[in-house]
Amino acid sequence: MLNTGLDTVLAATTDPAASQVFMKQAKAFEADAKFFEALEAYKNAVKANRTATTLFNVARMQDHLGYDDDAMRSYEECTRMPNPPVNAFLNLSVLLEDAAQFTRASKLILKVLEANPNHPRAKLFIRDVQASKNMLYDEELARLKGREEAMFELPVAEFELSIRARNCLKKMNIRTLGDLLRIGEAELLSYKNFGETSLVEIKQMLTARGLRLGQQLDRGHYDKVRGEVLEKMKGTVADGVLGLTVGTLNLGIRSRKALQLLGIQTVGDLAARTEAELMGVKNFGATSLVEIHERLAEHGLALRTLE
Length: 307
Known about the structure:
It contains 17 helices and no strands.
């Protein structure tokens, strides 16, 4: 009884015959290159009978006219309806790729390939999406590396240091910020006339910039590990998450200071670190560790574990 009543209501809200008339009008407009008129006729066809076919044609025309957001919404609704055209998935994947939403685009194409593993257009598209995704990660890594390299080339003479500290660094042939990051506390203190006061002064200057003494000593190893971790995480988290700054995690003061000391700037940097590395920072305790675990989990990530 309930199903019969529902069928009656649906029948009262659809008019397949009228929809076909509008579809014919739209096709005629489209053939005459009257695309705006065609879009309106396709929309009328949808109003008369909302099906995967009518919605696909609205989306296709919106896509053609450059209404990308409208086209994506129409394609998405179309893909959720019974018997959607294959091109609804593929066309939507192209729009998503253009919007740098590579994970969503890949999922749509994979649905097509699951149904038809040899679909030529889908096979081509999945390669394009993966290539674009890899390019985005490569560009992000290059951008971060370029920013770091520029900072490391800054002369230490430009920073506000005491005459004693500046003279000691000059005699030790430490000219740039990068040079300072490649030396440890013990080596600095071993130099004649270089005392605790100068050490504290330099450490404070570095901390204010999210840096620490000696952090470049094992940089090559860390860069390799970071690259491997980012590679493993590709496709497992939402696009753009790894490049977010750690400031977006809204961490407490103690956690933020620890990340600054370790030179951690992005969410990807943080996920490449281990619990032991964080716990090795002074005043970083279990509460801060739990906080970081929770913030990373919100993005589907976790700290690196040693295998």
